[in-house]
Amino acid sequence: MALLTQDAQEIHQDALLPDRIPRHVAIIMDGNGRWAKARGLPRTEGHRQGTENLRKILRACVEFGVEILTIYAFSTENWARPAAEVQMLMKILEMVIDRELKDLDANGVQIRHIGELRGIAPGLQKKIRQACEYTRNNHKLILNVAFNYGGRDEIVHAVRRIVEDHIPIEKIDESLISRYLYTSDLPDPDLIIRTSGELRVSNFLIWQGAYSELYSTPTYWPDFDKEALRSALIAYGQRKRRFGQTDEQIVP
Ligand code: FPP
Fold first, then answer.
1. Enclosing domain of residue 145
2. What is the per-residue pLDDT for 245?
3. Ligand 1 within 6 A of 54 CB?
4. Is 222 in the pocket of ligand 1 (CB under 6 A)?
5. Is 78 a catalytic residue?
6. What confidence tier does 6 reach under pLDDT thresholds 50, 70, 90?
7. Residue 30 is a catalytic residue
8. What residue's CA is closest to ligand 1, atom 24?
9. Which of 28, 94, 105, 233 has an alpha carbon within 20 to 30 A of 68's alpha carbon?
10. How far apart are CA 192 and CA 201, in angstroms?
């Protein structure tokens, strides 16, 4: 009997429990370049495989019951990469919108953009706006695409708009600042995953991620498959989120 209980506990620990699924998962999709290099392929091939992988992870998120997926696709710092790679990353977003929009829409995915549209080529800006508009009534999964996004930049823009709106100083608190961010109506990410083994947040959701659980895996993004996502979600389910409180104060 004791053994049975132990077995049951082990199964329980390795299982994905419906009430322990994070509502909002954010991913730093890192390691495309190293994935390609390890295979003697050009970096562009890593980004191509990374894009293919994104399709699979999107499907897996819907299947696992994740409600919001935020992906770090192009940071404000990525402009400093070689021009050809910047061009390729722009082209990828354009291709994803052109080729996948209908399919994403049919699967109930609501596309949102976080980041600065200014700075992106006008044609691509238009496509991003159209994709968001086209899918705005979908509710199966919110796909938040961080593109030309930086956490510090986001806070600078929020502060500028707060000043422009003449908000009185006594009205400025954490919830007001949250409402001025790109993610204003979304819950903060419960889980931030970073692939490729790096242990940094790299200017990603630095305000919203204050209490997010962090998960790092050595797997490069193109290899981060459904089972890898399952492992990350299971690890999340085993974390104790205390939000600054003590263990005793937390009601399971
Ligand atoms: C990091 O890998 C990845 C990126 C900067 C781009 C991520 C883009 C995709 C996965 C494609 C999907 C894109 C869109 C726009 C939907 P890295 O190049 O920094 O890899 P490395 O650290 O190994 O060099």
1. 2-239
2. 80
3. yes
4. no
5. yes
6. very low
7. yes
8. 33
9. 94
10. 9
